[in-house]
């Protein structure tokens, strides 16, 4: 039986998109760079982590890891898969996420549709335990 391991986002700017999602999600952070990883990047001619073609965002506890990988093509169609987030206050969360770089694309009675700075769609719903 398979289990979910990682979610991978194709990006034009992996480091910036990884920082957005690390800030957007409670308990997630961009994985720290150790000496071995920095040496590996330098061996590829990459001198700045901002230019890293694959950036990992890890949860503090259980949950999938998020990988952000550089791709040459631009996003040009709607996502076939998207994350759903839960928040106690939809409007407050929309303000927080837009301050991080998200854009509100739609408002429905029970949820909001947003895009991250790369244009990837995601939804925000009321938390299951919210009134």
Automatic annotation (TrEMBL):
Designated name of the protein: VOC family protein
Gene3D superfamilies: 2,3-Dihydroxybiphenyl 1,2-Dioxygenase, domain 1
InterPro entries: Glyas_Bleomycin-R_OHBP_Dase (IPR029068), Glyoxalase_6 (IPR041581)
Domain Glyoxalase-like, residue spans: 7-125
UniProt superkingdom: Bacteria
């Amino acid at each position: 039986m398979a289990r979910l391991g990682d979610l991978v986002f194709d990006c034009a700017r992996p480091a910036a998109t990884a920082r957005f999602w690390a800030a957007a999600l409670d308990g997630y952070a961009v994985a720290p760079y150790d000496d071995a990883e920095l040496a590996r990047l330098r061996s590829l001619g990459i001198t700045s982590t901002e230019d890293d073609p694959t950036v990992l965002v890890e949860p503090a506890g259980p949950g999938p890891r998020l990988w952000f990988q550089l791709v040459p093509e631009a996003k040009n169609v709607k996502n076939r898969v998207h994350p759903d987030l839960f928040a106690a206050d939809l409007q407050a969360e929309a303000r927080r996420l837009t301050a991080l770089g998200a854009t509100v694309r739609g408002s429905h009675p029970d949820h909001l549709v947003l895009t991250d700075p790369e244009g990837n769609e995601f939804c925000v719903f009321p938390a299951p335990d919210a009134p």
